[in-house]
Amino acid sequence: MSEPENVPPGVDLDKASPARLYDYYLGGKDNYPIDREAAERIRAVVPELEDIAWANRGFLQRAVHRLAALGIRQFIDVGAGLPTQNNTHQVAQAVDPAARVLYADNDPMVLAHARALLAGSPDTAAITADLREPEELLGQPAVRELIDFTQPVALLLVAVLHFIGDEDDPRGLIGRYLDALPPGSYLALSHGTADHQAPQALRVIDGVYSKATANAFFRTRDEIAGFFDGLELLPPHEGSAPGVAFSGDWGADDPESSDSDGSRWVYCGVARVP
Ligand SMILES: C[S@@+](CC[C@H](N)C(=O)[O-])C[C@H]1O[C@@H](n2cnc3c(N)ncnc32)[C@H](O)[C@@H]1O
Prior knowledge:
The protein is of the alpha/beta class. 38% of the residues lie in helices and 14% in strands. The chain has one domain (18-272): Vaccinia Virus protein VP39 (Rossmann fold). Strands 1, 2, 3, 4, 5, 6, 7 and 8 form an 8-stranded mixed sheet that branches. Helix 1 (18-25) packs across helix 2 and helix 3 (49-69) runs parallel beside helix 4 (88-95). The radius of gyration is 18 Å and the shape is globular. The protein binds S-adenosylmethionine. The site of S-adenosylmethionine has 22 residues, from helix 1 and helix 3.
């Protein structure tokens, strides 16, 4: 098979990557044969794959919109993924054109595509950085130039923490980011869960991601809710108690109809830093 053209530097064509896999689940074109083959192995046992991705993406969009409506004007989107429709800056700037958005991801494909999308887009920047290095990420000049750390910031960790194993202390990492943000900031987080899933599907997913550039670690509802300890969780939708919810339910206009097989793979929540 001939090699794909215009491959950005640093991209490994021999391993699937979480960013390219997710792009494929969403119907995007920024992926390679190795990603498509891997994704199809998962789809054979998880037919709701596309729904999982879109239910999560819907959460991201509704969370950003809610945060912008609450007056948040600065967003740090870590594990931002390849650009698709209604990216964070488009949702936030639809509420206030002056909203500022910093995208960070450790996949070299993301930077190449994000820079192309953001060219001519003021008040946005994209950097390559690793979530596991908070001080290095937040210390990059592009971040210091764009973000005012005396004003509230929304930290978005959407569908990214499940690529961080316990050995990297995800709770400790969240704490190190939030320590840099003033009171009144927010954390929006979503995370894959295996709570309700069949072991066969989980074995296939584990087999695919263990050969990809990052492994995936599902966590329970309690573990995911624990990421918000010390913060003030918002109610996922009108009339509900504060807490985490399945991705489709969070911010849903009609929670009765938002439940789906795909939505039940991901818990999410949004919380205020006191
Ligand atoms: C499933 S995508 C989620 C994209 C977007 N946040 C969303 O929810 O629509 C996960 C993204 O996290 C990125 N990622 C994984 N591990 C990372 C790490 N250690 N540091 C930064 N980004 C990471 C991947 O490259 C990928 O783009």
